[in-house]
Design a protein that fits this description.
With 618 residues, the chain is mainly alpha-helical. It has helices at 5-15, 35-44, 62-73, 80-84, 87-97, 122-125, 144-157, 168-177, 181-194, 205-214, 219-226, 229-239, 244-260, 263-266, 269-288, 296-299, 315-322, 325-328, 336-345, 350-358, 370-375, 385-397, 404-419, 427-443, 471-490, 492-505, 507-515, 523-526, 535-542, 547-560, 573-586, 594-613, and strands at 24-28, 51-55, 131-135, 162-166, 195-200, 459-460, 463-464. Helix 31 runs antiparallel to helix 32 (594-613).
């Protein structure tokens, strides 16, 4: 039996009664359950001209309702062209049906123990068998017991058949929140008098899906959605929110996303299935309010792999556990930051989006490295595992790997395979080879990390590290992080020499490095390089510069310590104090000169301010 068919059968009976039943029918259901969709489909299939439909959402006066009914009864008189006539339209209405649209008397209610005393306009009291439908009852801005009393005039006084559509739970909830027992009691009293039959509308997702897909503007998008109805149904059920409004909006949003994709992406079936799955589940969860757009980076991060169960489950962990796609795939086609931009703005840069998708393993034309084949060992045939392992291990054992992230990945993969007895190997040997590869890179001067503060993280190449839950691997990650930091510390004297060379060659190059205006200069602000600069040599050269160059350097120093890096630059505080003392001692030699004025009133105060900005301890 089709969902809600019993409701359809009863409405057929109710609407065709020859005599007035003198009661209304109520259709109830939660927001998004499909109540409005159901009644609109019913009207559409049962001679729409026999119905007068009005949504009460935000309605503040009875005049608004009556104007809506008038517009449906007299579409020509209510057309835009006639409305443009303004006073003429009102005059016609007053003359023909004797109703004053400007009057407020009909909105004044006499509220007593019974029903409000309301007089309907003559043209609404004789509608020759029209069936009235009042939707969104709970969203009406008129108090609920008053609007119910108003509707009762149609039912009891005029004998009209009337259908009410409402989220009754919200009506009761609102009364409880307002602690208005009188309102609740009056609502229930009037409902008992007004409503003779009530039905709970069940969410009929499959029946609504065809209609929603039909609303999608782009023909190609509609075709894609029509061929993926089964996946849509599964994900909608899996989400568990039963909100058809969410579904409708998600499909319309997908239409805009689909138009951004290049044909190469659209033609890759596996990639599209992966993307569509993620798009829908993100849409459902955001529209429900289970997560925010800003949570998507966390949803697609790999930090959950190291989170202890005792920490409790975050909202993103709950979602990952809810949908199988997060268990099926260790990587996803788009980064969390891309999803965030997409759902916040509704769109993203088309070129960047497609470049990111084409760089995935689904479409990348580059030959997949052997360590990645080993990472996805579950897709290998039994006889393929050992040959792939032999290739990876040979390079690993030769200490010839020149990418630090590859070293981390391979170490994790081998530890994982060993722990599950898929390869016979000693874990200590694997750890020592991993450390050996890092040390070899350092010895060759290749251990350059673009973001050393974030190394090694919990993933690389959009792949979470295998074996990350193992104690041995966690210790190895710490070793790798410490080594990179130590390597950066050891490079500081060299960086200090580069700074002084830049100062003597180009003041702009020097100030750019101090402020790290470009990514290439980040190493100069992440570490306290200036503490390795000879303060006397610096001051001696500084005093030979033009006044404008001196001011530019003092400005750059002030900017340097206004960054969030100021705490890790704390070791430079002693260097700055020494520079300040040297300049203060020498300022007398420039007394009466512009350079002396600049020293006393601009440069020394700027350096003093910089010193005060730096914390006393790291």
């Amino acid at each position: 039996m089709l969902k809600n068919s019993h409701v359809t059968n009863y409405l057929d009976y109710y609407c065709t009664l020859s005599n007035s039943p003198e009661f209304a029918v109520m259709l109830r259901g939660n927001w998004g359950s499909g109540k409005s969709w159901f009644i609109k489909k019913y009207i559409e299939s049962h001679s729409p001209e026999n119905f007068l439909y009005v949504s009460l959402y935000g309605v503040t006066s009875y005049a608004e309702i009556e104007e809506s009914f008038f517009a449906q009864l007299h579409p020509f008189l209510a057309s835009k062209g006639m409305k443009f006539a303004g006073k003429l339209l009102k005059g016609v209405i007053k003359t023909t049906i004797k109703i004053d649209l400007d009057t407020a008397k009909k909105d004044e209610l006499t509220i007593g123990g019974g029903l409000p005393d309301i007089r309907l306009p003559d043209y609404l009291s004789k509608l020759d068998g029209k069936i009235l439908v009042f939707d969104d009852l709970e969203r009406c801005s008129i108090p609920i017991y008053q609007i119910m009393g108003y509707i009762n005039q149609f039912v009891e006084t005029s004998g009209m058949k009337t259908i009410l559509v409402a989220n009754e739970d919200e009506i009761v909830k609102l009364d409880e929140e307002q602690d208005s027992k009188d309102n609740a009691r009056r609502y229930l009293t009037i409902k008992e008098k007004l409503v003779g039959k009530s039905f709970e509308i069940e969410t009929d997702m499959e029946a609504a899906l065809d209609d929603f897909i039909g609303l999608v503007p782009d023909e190609e998008s509609r075709a894609y959605l029509n061929t993926h109805k089964f996946l849509i149904v599964i994900l909608f059920i899996m989400a568990g929110y039963k909100n058809l409004r969410h579904l409708k909006q998600a499909l319309l949003d997908f239409d805009r996303f689909y138009e951004l994709l290049d044909n190469e992406v659209k033609n890759c079936e596996d990639l599209m299935d992966h993307l569509f799955n993620l798009f829908l589940l993100i849409s459902f969860e955001i529209k429900k309010g289970a997560i925010h757009e800003d949570d998507l980076e966390q949803l697609f991060s790999f930090s959950h792999l190291v989170r202890k169960e005792t920490d409790g489950k975050s909202k993103t962990q709950v979602i990952r556990a809810k949908y199988p796609i997060f268990k099926t795939f260790g990587f996803h086609p788009l980064e969390g930051s891309t999803w965030t931009r997409l759902f916040k703005a509704g769109t993203v840069d088309r070129n960047e989006l497609n470049q990111e998708l084409k760089a995935t393993s689904y479409l990348s034309k580059e030959e997949q490295p052997e360590w990645k084949r080993l990472y996805f060992f579950k897709s290998l045939k039994d006889e393929e595992l050992n040959p792939v392992f032999d290739v990876v291990y040979a390079e690993f054992a030769a200490l010839s790997i020149n990418n630090p992230y590859y070293i981390i990945q391979i170490t994790g993969i081998l530890l994982f395979l060993t722990s599950h007895k898929l390869i016979e190997f000693d874990q200590d040997t694997i750890i020592q080879l991993g450390k050996g590869n890092l040390n070899a890179m350092k010895a060759r001067g290749e251990l350059e990390i673009q973001n050393p503060d974030e190394f090694p993280g919990d993933h690389s190449h959009s792949l979470g590290y295998a074996g990350i839950e193992q104690t041995e691997f966690k210790a190895f990650l710490k070793y790798a992080a410490d080594m990179v930091k130590q390597n950066e510390l050891e490079k500081q004297p060299i960086k200090a020499g580069e700074l002084m060379s830049a100062l003597k060659t180009s003041v702009k190059s020097f100030t750019d490095k101090l402020k790290a205006d470009r990514p290439a200069n980040l190493d100069y602000v992440r570490f306290p390089v200036l503490k390795h600069v000879d303060a006397v040599e610096f001051v001696d050269h500084f005093l030979t510069l033009s006044n404008s160059d001196k001011i530019a350097i003092s400005d750059a120093l002030e900017t340097r310590y206004s960054y969030s890096y100021s705490r890790q630059l704390q070791p430079e505080k002693a260097w700055l104090q020494e520079v300040l003392e040297l300049l203060t001692a020498k300022k007398g030699a420039y007394h009466g000169k512009i350079s002396g004025y600049d020293l006393e009133h601009i440069i020394i105060p700027a350096i003093s301010k910089s010193i005060s900005t730096i914390p006393d301890t790291q």
